[in-house]
Amino acid sequence: MTDPVNPMPPDLVSLLLDTDTLDGFLQALADSALRLAPTADGCGITLEREHHPLTVVSAGTSAPPLDEAQYAQDDGPCLQSLRTGKEVSVTDMRAEVRWNGYPAFAADSGTLSSLSLPVAPRSHTAGALNLYSPKQDGFAGADLGGLRTLAAQATGAIALAQRLSDVQVFADDLQAAIRSRTVIDQAAGIVMAQRRCSAEEALGTLRAASQHRNIKLRDLCAQLVEGIAGATPSDGAGLRPRR
Fold it and tell me: How many whole angstroms separate alpha carbon 109 and alpha carbon 65?
């Protein structure tokens, strides 16, 4: 049975089954992080995209303005955790001397302590899971083991999403290559029929024409096929001679 005071971190498989997007999964993690840190009133997950940090999801109320204040000055505990891959803890913003004016802004906003845990460290999608509390040393009683597990689960989910994205890019590139090869083969068939030559000789003729006209081989072949078929080739469908 789960302890209502210190709930166990959620099971990764269960969360993946309950959500169908990466953002949904990260939102569930942020909600869970708040439950593991009873004094926290805000949690945000920051990811760096194209060298710019962004709060992709948040739970509670305090995280978005505090995150944005750090992004604006390009410094703060959440960015330090993101960039170093290390946990960053602030026990009392009023006594904090790091990060220029950010601690004073946080204290004036009602946040006295924070905890940032690295997500996907040392990758091009590095980030941080950031918790904020209105209490001094607000994470002394938090389930740090559970929070670290959540950060690790976020890291795994992001790595999986990146791998799936890479697979999709590869599949798209492969389909484009197949379409290009189909058009070239169609054009070679036309040249073979017109000149009664071999496939190798037809490809040689097409390559020579491509170089002479300073046009890509695929584009040259597409023009030739379109001129014969009366339609732009796009999916490798069979040719229909113009009537």
Answer: 9
